[in-house]
Amino acid sequence: MIILRPAALSDISNLERLAHESGPMVSTLPEKRSHLLNKVEQSIVSFEQDVDCAGEESYLFVLEETLTGQVLGTGAVNALAGNREPFYSFRNDIKVHSSRQLNVHSRIHALTLNHDLSDHSQLCSFYIVPALAETDYPTLITLGRLLFMTIFPLRFANEWMAVLPGIADESGRAPFWEHVGRKFFGIDYNQVEYYNSTRNSTFISEMMPYHPLYVALIDEEAQAVMGLVHQNAALQCSLLSDQGFEADKHVEIFDAGPILTAQRNALSLCQKVQQVKLTTITDHVNANSLQTFLIGLAEGNSFKACLVQGGLQGNQLQLSEYNIDQLNLSSEHRVFCIKL
Amino acid sequence: MIILRPAALSDISNLERLAHESGPMVSTLPEKRSHLLNKVEQSIVSFEQDVDCAGEESYLFVLEETLTGQVLGTGAVNALAGNREPFYSFRNDIKVHSSRQLNVHSRIHALTLNHDLSDHSQLCSFYIVPALAETDYPTLITLGRLLFMTIFPLRFANEWMAVLPGIADESGRAPFWEHVGRKFFGIDYNQVEYYNSTRNSTFISEMMPYHPLYVALIDEEAQAVMGLVHQNAALQCSLLSDQGFEADKHVEIFDAGPILTAQRNALSLCQKVQQVKLTTITDHVNANSLQTFLIGLAEGNSFKACLVQGGLQGNQLQLSEYNIDQLNLSSEHRVFCIKL
Amino acid sequence: MMFIRPIQKEDLAALLQLAQKTGTGFTSLPHNEAHLEQRIDRMIATWEGGNTLADQGYLFALVDSETNTLVGVSGIEVAIGLNDPWYDFHVGTQVHASKELGIYRQMKKLSLSNDHTGNSELCTLFLDPDYRKDKNGQLLSKCRLLFLAAFKDKFPKRIIAEMRGVSDENGRSPFWESLGRHFFTLDFDQADYLTGIGSKSFIAELMPKHAFYVDFLTPSAQQVIAEVHPNTLPARRILESEGMRYEGYVDIFDAGPTLEAYTDDLRIVKKSRMRQVTIVESALLGEQPLLIGNEKYQDFRAIICNSQVDAAHIYLSQAEADALAVVSGEQLRVVPLFEKESTL
Amino acid sequence: MMFIRPIQKEDLAALLQLAQKTGTGFTSLPHNEAHLEQRIDRMIATWEGGNTLADQGYLFALVDSETNTLVGVSGIEVAIGLNDPWYDFHVGTQVHASKELGIYRQMKKLSLSNDHTGNSELCTLFLDPDYRKDKNGQLLSKCRLLFLAAFKDKFPKRIIAEMRGVSDENGRSPFWESLGRHFFTLDFDQADYLTGIGSKSFIAELMPKHAFYVDFLTPSAQQVIAEVHPNTLPARRILESEGMRYEGYVDIFDAGPTLEAYTDDLRIVKKSRMRQVTIVESALLGEQPLLIGNEKYQDFRAIICNSQVDAAHIYLSQAEADALAVVSGEQLRVVPLFEKESTL
């Protein structure tokens, strides 16, 4: 069985391997062991703490094959995108320039460095091994985290967001970076993504413009990729969009990848999730009538999620005995489900 | 009976009187006859047009005592706040100033001139004669317009807003204007409000700063009134707030009065409104069980609203025969109601 | 003989004819009769003392005394930007540096500015192509500085001159193509014409209000910032030799440089001296060409000639004195025409 | 006799003692041994040719030859803003005008700028109060310009000097109280100290990044923009008499003016001349005080005296020649000490 569960210290080696595989696509999953260790430790502390207001917590999940203990993917949530420091993005503002005599109101687009999203909760560090890309498990990582956030509302803000990777080629050349960021930094995209994952964000305020950047003056190759998602993240993007996330007017500052945002209450998952009791499937249930459910198991502050086949009747979710065994339920567990 | 109905050309003299009474508090109800005439004519055209996308329409309603034909109040809706030209406001942005060596992230507030709200539908020109201030009729003017907007969704944007008057004393001295606008214009608040109601908004881009204004540098008397509503509009403010309108981060540019915004679908009125059939109260209904309803009558593109006592059973709204007579119903009328 | 005098009402026809000979990039003498007539009227009103500061301006005519024809004009606006705002771009430096990353970047940025509001402006210099010889260009340009030296109290303490920027043979400005075009749908020619008839501020309203980085312009646009059109190079050299300098401001359309100076720093203001007229039968040639002007405000005249001059006198022929509208014994303001010449 | 020489490693103790005598508002000579030692080392490395442009600087010592004590220092930074960004506020003009409303408003605004990046800076002038007499202040200030005239190729083409702004007897700056305090929780004293030890850019990071209007400052803050502290008035007058000018830039903390000039425009650069040393038994007094310096880069010396001078020679006593580290027949750079004096 494959489950989504909080990362543990014993996952470090596996995470290191995944971080290496994932490369620069996942800037919030650093390759450096010490940084990974920090991230896992911070996650453990975050889960342990009782929280009644989103703060510096960051929750890291891993996708584990429970028979072999293999780690096959990751996904994290930051309680606040900008916890100890601002979370920067470019906001695509429209400025109207008016001339009375010429009777013109031109609409001029300009990118403004801002940190409007600092108070949003942030989904990040999504990665799954390529072999599972076509399965339901990307869905597990993404919706599993949303389910976690739904069940523990006090730990998160009301507004959520996810930064998706923008366009970059295999050599790590990102057109938006080449025509924008490079002018200010003079370094490669990979390099700045590494700084971004390992340094605090002060360097952004030091190096990036506080003047709005007029979009019309940005090279067309870079304009063309603004708000476009990297093909590797297309699935992520559609999963989140289906839930109600929308690409607003923010883009990522280095590669101009889309930033999706949503109000918690507007998400379909939040509206449809229900608490259930698990029961064993009775004989007379037809296997064909079984449906796929995402279930989340909360016990105290801990949480895990997995996908199961079952049948829902009222607040009873019927699963196979085998599945129920695997879940290792205790009487303390609260179980939540949502039909996929 | 007192009803809310579209303004007609015959209302001009009455409107002129109201505009004179209302004074500078209602900047979108100009005193000048020719401007009023324009406004009424534009409203008539707007109602007559078939509209499937919010545009330059502006709808003006009057509150009429039907027995005497007296006009007792006004309320308007602009399909788009900035139809032919931008709608300007100040956005209260937070800028983070970071210093690595001092390990400081200061949060600096700054007001930025913007026209983010141009694509919102706007409630405006609210006025009611003082004698009715304590009655249910202010509610009729405000909720009646919201009902109109709900019933004709294609005529409006999904996001609505209302600019409420900010703090000014009886002599027309507005502290925010004295410490901010006057520096740029060198004229009195009443004067600029008059320009604002009669000229196109180009003068704002000519005279107002495009740099953010640091709030800390604004005189404290002016800071203190930012986002505060004038006492005369307190009722308006609470009516809209009850419906789900919220004061976001925008304030009006001259007096810093609050700007309330809402998503249509989030408004309680939109969620609760229902289409009904009117029937006559049967004898056995107890008068004590009657409740107050806001009803809206739509016939083609026209619309009127009033308050009635009635009883709702399923989709049947039972009214007194007297009331039903007064409504002058035709078979073309669609009737909507909401319990207050 | 060539001499300078104030423009007159009767000059309108000649001025209109002259305006026809200008091309793209010469914004301040549009071929537009109403505009030119208004301009002449405004200049005359200034000389007659009837204008407020915002409307004061002078226009000088270069006249060939043989034929009594007007062959060139040059002007001074006394205080710019007091009616319509005066715009240019300030070329500033912005440093982005991060000690931690070990990165230091120095970037040029352009910001819309009204900093020259209230300065004087040297403007509208145009000389009939047939007369582009014999130091006529020098006279037309420098007579303004001589006038300024004579009537300094009528001018603010700073003076500027906008130099025409680079454009190609089709009138395309690389700077406009890279910047202005994105903010405005006009061609450079049209924008240029609107500017000439005083509509520059309308256009400026549509230009970028926030500072932007030079690095975001095309390379060809970057190259022409603060560069003049090849045809304007001589005019630039003349003004620079007189003490005007590029100080980091450029035109918002073509990025031509704004030259500027404190009037007190102008060579002609510092070095010009008063000499008494002595009329001689046959004037001897002195050692260097001199710029000579009278001190008559409403009947200002200026000429260039190699007169003999000593510590107190200047020796002129009758024709020269006539051109200068002076008689023996009157005072003239005299300065070597060129910077390199020795002082008086 | 008082003379100027390069700072030396052995001067540390004396410099530290001197630093103790400075007060608030004197940011560049903090009483901090490590900082001062580092400063001396950097200066010496510059004279020895070992520094990159960003780190080059000169510090001159004023020495009383009677007692061989250091009684004052003055410095030049060669190129500012190449390590940490150099910040000041540019005082610009913004015009808001509406033809339709008939309103025209001219407003001053301040914008954070790095425009002086790469310029030279006159800095760190401090003279022991006991020695504030006998033109010692003139020597200390002007010796730097003489050095610059002698070794012009080692400097960029523009030079600036920041003048201390207005503060009251308690060290409170009205400008800081009205602006900086809102963006920063430090007192002016502390901000000032951090600036002195090179942390100015840290503070600038917290200052307003967008232009703001002078009208929004308190009246007392508005009044002190570009004004100097009364104690700094003499220093300002000295530099202005040498050709430096306020050109619209002020300090981000106290709004003291930045004076600036092209080095080529400095009086001492333009007017200094070379003269050959002749040693005389008893030196006759000349008609005016002269600033005299040698041309030895690593052993630069300068003095003030009323020497006799002719078209080719300068006549010095042995003591004067010794102070200048020259012997008979060597060349010295000579200029009248004051602007008003006649040229050589």
Automatic annotation (TrEMBL), chains A, B:
Query: Which stretch is the leader sequence?
Result: none
State the InterPro entries in the record: Acyl_CoA_acyltransferase, Arg_succinylTrfase_AstA/AruG
| Entry-linked NCBIfam families | arg_catab_AOST
Q: Which PANTHER family match?
A: ARGININE N-SUCCINYLTRANSFERASE (PTHR30420:SF1), N-SUCCINYLARGININE DIHYDROLASE (PTHR30420)
The entry's protein name is Arginine N-succinyltransferase subunit alpha
Keyword Acyltransferase assigned to the entry: answer is: yes
**Record's keyword terms, sorted:** Acyltransferase, Arginine metabolism, Transferase
Automatic annotation (TrEMBL), chains C, D:
Q: Which keywords fit this entry according to its UniProt record?
A: Acyltransferase, Arginine metabolism, Transferase
Query: What species was this sequence derived from?
Result: Psychromonas marina
Give the source lineage, highest ranks first.
Answer: Bacteria, Pseudomonadati, Pseudomonadota, Gammaproteobacteria, Alteromonadales
Name used for this protein in its record: Arginine N-succinyltransferase
> Which PANTHER family does the UniProt entry name for this protein?
ARGININE N-SUCCINYLTRANSFERASE, N-SUCCINYLARGININE DIHYDROLASE
- EC number(s) from the headed UniProt entry: 2.3.1.109
Q: Which Gene3D superfamilies match?
A: 2.40.40.20, 3.40.630.30
One family from Pfam that matches here is: AstA
Which InterPro entries does this one have? Acyl_CoA_acyltransferase (IPR016181), Arg_succinylTrfase_AstA/AruG (IPR007041), Arginine_N-succinylTrfase (IPR017650)
Q: Gene behind this chain?
A: astA
